[in-house]
Specification:
heterodimer; A: mainly alpha; MetI-like fold; 2 domains; 14 helices; 0% strand; globular; B: alpha/beta; Rossmann fold; 5-stranded antiparallel sheet; 11 helices; binds adenosine-5'-triphosphate; binds magnesium ion
Chain lengths: 313, 336
């Protein structure tokens, strides 16, 4: 068990290194002079030279990489070229809404999709099952912004249950915060739960036809018990896998949703940084997102041991 | 005359929303408490489907089960709903399935799966449940049972898993045990141990056993009665002596001579293939006797006329129009 955890943890190290080196090289592999790119079109020679000095772009590449890795290790991502603020503090300012939105979406999706998928599998072939399958296709294929604007139209503009846009931070109270993120979370949950429900249904169907399900019934276990005690644990691995792998898609969706609902989160920070060619910020954001994804994947891997005893050795 | 312990009359099972595939067709048999009925026949003849019907384990939506009678220990199984069946399963009747490798839940410990079989039916403390599980694991000769209780199925060999399946089936002392080819997947020594174990438990608890097998050697060893199944119907029924010494149906005779010629090391299914031809399609059963086109003894009339049941000796019946000792079935040493 411990060696299993240790091996997984160890396997993260090369991935982290590859991410860091790639993000570092981003600035250097493109055509043209990085200092000039950062400085923008109207910069004078002196300005460009000053940036080159400040960002140490005149040193040899390996030395720069070494410095960069050292900085990242001490959580120093440099300063924004545009505003001069440390990248780390910019990220910390923006991380709250994004993190809460992602978690909120995740919880909502799991609460909707797993019962839905399991139920559909249990009632496979009925009208209800077919309706759920169609709903998941729709949830999966309608673009995020279309769902977002539709929800705003109905629940914010007509019914006035939720604010049209904007974000209330946790400091303004938990309920206010949750209320301001509810429509964005539902918007994203459409996509996410459609995906998870589909996998849950498919694997549940497979599991329900397994011999050990028949064994459980032959012992005298009732339907609900068979479903919850004998089947649910066996769909854990594929379902958690799809939750983990689609987390990247969720982060992509967060970026779009944040602009639809005007939420000052990481997504907006990213878009703004790209538009202003604020390379240190782009790098910092990329590294943060990558680390989150790596951590999620690690958790997914570790959770296999929870569901499948065969993995534990 | 008193009712037999298990009595099945004219059981038919078909699958598909409209009952398109009629897989079992008019099967009837009786079984007394403490006795063993062997159900034999080649692969696909409907043995497992027949047994699974008794347990009520077919999916209700896609299965149509009809019978004139299906009674177990005075309980009318035909009128049982899923909830009633759930009460009966485990206590009145239990089943050991064909494939021990896939029949245990990979995500749950052996101990949990066995304990569940107890607490589903009996109101015992956790300690008493554990004691029962330990006792039954010892019974089926699982070495180091305390440790095994915390094992997962993948940590056990096939023979061990089949013992666990047997333990699970027997833990609530069912009156009827259905064993569906419980030893086919195992090697010969393990097979012998498991047969011996079943016999021992049967003598002690008076369990009635329906034993499904391909292997006539096993039948000779453990059977009291034998029912031979072909293409969804029974073709011959009698005591193990009737069947081995006085087989009266062409199919039974074919099975016996195929068995007589087998060489050690051949698999059971291989032996049965030695009857030329193959099972007819269920959707397209021939006119007349189902077996006529493969029968070494068929007369022209066999192709047109559906044979009647005949009693060739008391308790020995056959659905063949040319029975008597017409068949020179190879003599088989019966071990009793
Ligand atoms: N759920 C089902 N739906 C449709 N057809 C089925 C179903 N279960 C079994 N059958 C068919 O019924 C026939 C008899 O199957 P069954 O499993 O009873 O055979 P068997 O005699 O047990 O064979 P084996 O010795 O290989 O186990 C087969 O042709 C099989 O394809
Ligand atoms: Mg079978």
């Amino acid at each position: 068990m411990n060696s299993f955890v240790f091996k997984r943890l160890l396997s993260v190290v090369p991935v982290v290194l590859v991410v860091l080196v790639t993000v570092f090289l981003l600035l250097h592999i493109g055509p043209g002079d990085p200092a000039a790119m950062i400085a923008g079109e109207n910069a004078t020679r002196e300005q460009i030279e000053e940036i080159r000095q400040r960002l140490m772009l005149d040193r040899p590449l390996l030395e720069q990489l070494w410095l960069y890795l050292g900085n990242v290790a001490s959580l120093n991502f440099g300063e924004s070229v545009y505003s001069g603020f440390p990248v780390m503090s910019l990220i910390l300012q923006r991380v709250e809404p994004t993190a809460i939105l992602a978690i909120y979406t995740m919880v909502l999706s799991i609460l909707i999709s797993i019962p839905m998928g399991v139920w559909a599998a249990w009632r496979a072939g009925t009208t209800l099952d077919r309706a759920l399958v169609i709903a998941s296709v729709i949830g999966f294929s309608v673009p995020v912004f279309v769902i977002g604007y539709a929800l705003v139209e109905i629940f914010a503009l007509r019914l006035r249950w939720f604010p049209v846009q904007g974000y209330k931070s946790l400091a303004d109270g938990f309920l206010a915060c949750i209320r301001s993120l509810t429509l964005p979370a539902i918007t994203l949950a459409f996509l996410f739960s459609a995906l998870v429900a589909r996998i849950a249904r498919a694997t549940m169907l497979e599991v329900l036809s397994e011999d050990y399900i028949r064994t459980a019934r032959a012992k005298g276990a009732r339907n609900r018990r068979v479903l919850i005690v004998h089947a649910l644990k066996n769909i854990g691995v594929p379902v958690v896998t799809v939750i983990g792998t689609s987390f990247a898609a969720l982060l992509g969706g967060v970026v779009i949703t944040e602009s639809v609902f005007n939420i000052p989160g990481m997504g907006r920070l990213t878009v703004d940084a790209i538009l202003t060619r604020d390379y240190p910020v782009v790098q910092g954001v990329l590294i943060s997102f990558s680390f989150v994804l790596i951590a999620i994947n690690l958790l997914v891997d570790l959770s296999y041991a929870l569901f499948d005893p065969r993995v534990r050795q | 005359m008193t009712q037999p312990f298990l009595s099945v009359r004219n059981l038919s099972v078909s699958f598909g929303a409209n009952g398109e595939a009629k897989v079992v067709n008019g099967v009837s048999f009786d079984l007394e408490a403490g006795k063993t009925l062997c159900l034999v026949g080649e692969s696909g003849s409907g043995k497992s489907v027949t047994a699974t019907s008794l347990m009520g384990l077919h999916p209700a939506k896609t299965t149509r089960i009809t019978a004139d009678r299906m009674e177990l220990d005075g309980i009318d199984l035909l009128s049982c709903d899923e909830a009633r069946f759930a009460e009966l399963r485990g206590t009145k009747m239990a089943m050991i399935f064909q494939d021990p490798m896939s029949s245990l839940n990979p995500a749950l410990t052996i101990g949990f799966q066995l304990r569940e079989a107890v607490f589903l039916h009996e109101n015992l403390s956790r300690a008493d449940q554990d004691a029962r599980v330990l006792e039954v694991l010892q019974r089926v000769r699982i070495p180091d049972p305390e440790r095994r209780m915390t094992s997962y199925p993948h940590e056990l060999s096939g023979g061990m898993r089949q013992r666990v399946m047997i333990a699970m089936a027997l833990i609530c002392r069912p009156k009827l045990l259905i064993a569906d080819e419980p030893t086919t997947a195992l090697d010969v020594t393990v097979q012998a141990q498991i047969l011996w174990l079943l016999g021992e438990l049967q003598r002690e608890f008076g369990t009635a056993i329906i034993f499904i097998t391909h292997d006539l050697g096993v039948v000779a060893e453990i059977g009291d009665d034998v029912a031979v199944m072909y293409a969804g119907s029974l073709v011959e029924k009698g005591s193990v002596f009737d069947i081995f010494d006085r087989a009266s149906h062409g199919y039974t005779a074919g099975l016996l001579s195929a068995t007589a010629e087998f060489h050690p090391g051949q698999t059971a299914s291989k032996r049965l293939v030695e009857i030329p031809g193959s099972l007819p399609q269920f959707s397209n059963l021939p006119q007349g006797c189902n077996f006529a086109d493969r029968c070494a003894f068929a007369a022209p009339s066999c192709l047109d006329r559906t044979p009647d049941w005949r009693e060739v000796a008391p308790g020995h019946v056959t659905s063949c129009d040319q029975p008597v000792g017409a068949f020179d079935a190879p003599k088989k040493e019966t071990a009793r």
